[in-house]
Amino acid sequence: MSNADQSLELLKSDFHRVREEVGKVLVGQDEVVETVLIALFAGGHCLLEGVPGLGKTLLVRTLSGSLDLDYSRIQFTPDLMPADITGTRIVTEDERGKKDFVFQKGPIFAQIVLADEVNRATPKTQSALLEAMQEGEVTAGGETHQLDQPFIVLATQNPLEMDGTYPLPEAQLDRFLFKVHVPFPKREELNEVLTRTTGQHSAQVEAVLDGDKILAHRDCVRRVEAAPHVQDFAVRLLLATHPESEFATEQVKRWVRYGASPRGVQSLLLGAKVRAALDQRLHVSFEDVRRTAPAALRHRVLLGFEGEAEGIPVDEIVAEVVEQTSEMDDSAVAGA
Q1: Among 45, 109, 165, 289, whose Cα sits 20 to 30 Å from the Cα of 222?
Q2: What single DSSP character describes residue 26?
Q3: How many domains does the chain have?
Q4: Residue 188 and residue 250 in one domain
Q5: Global pTM?
Q6: Parent domain of 237
Q7: Are residues 304 and 243 in the same domain?
Q8: Residues 33 and 69 in one domain
Q9: Among candidate residues 84, 91, 87, 85, the one with its CA nearest the CA of residue 141
């Protein structure tokens, strides 16, 4: 077995070990858990959207328990200030009575950060996350502080209760590798939830993966190749979300104001590489890209006024884009 095969085998094993630990506590939500773990192994942040009580916070807390990483939770509220997230300079006094300013780190200085109900804070406070999410560092008091790696933000938001909330700016949404819809549990899952939470069952989650291994797995993911025609398929998927593009579908031309950004295709390909690695392949397939498209694109496609008024689901538009985009560029073949 080659070194590459051994790395893929270890990645797959660690992925499923973490998934099993999360499964000790969280009932169902298989696709949600898989997508969050793919984001972790790809090196990106994740936005979880769902009504209250579906286990979003429980998922993040349980995931943190299965990882040997520093964890912090930030409860976003309208009166939360940027310094409450990043930290602030405070006056300290030593034994000689000499006073000095010392930077006291905020809760963003962790490796796995739960931003709970992130859309309840003002845009000014939400923006405190931007630098940390994109650059992996925090600037405060004229000094730049590096965040420990791996670093991942898992944010939650409620799509129903909109009073007193501030929708996330497009620039911040774009920082999330994936957006995941958390569905309501099925009948059998609800019965299992009751069995676990109203009985004597008390699962203990063990830390099975540390930061160094996660970083090694991320390097392994980057070594997975995407053939030019597969990469171009991902690019054409992205371009198909833009109404002015030659690849745009009829729904996109009618309902969409602006399509996904270049970060969208980066997210698409990174997620596809993780899926390929989990299947112990060193090459990305078209199916890997297709399966990753909804989570990578749904929060990056902006509806126009008519689309908003009609309540057109973005997932429906993304599904049509995936269905109608051919694996090979017919126009290029015709031109040849």
Answers
A1: 109
A2: S
A3: 2
A4: no
A5: 0.87
A6: 224-329
A7: yes
A8: yes
A9: 87
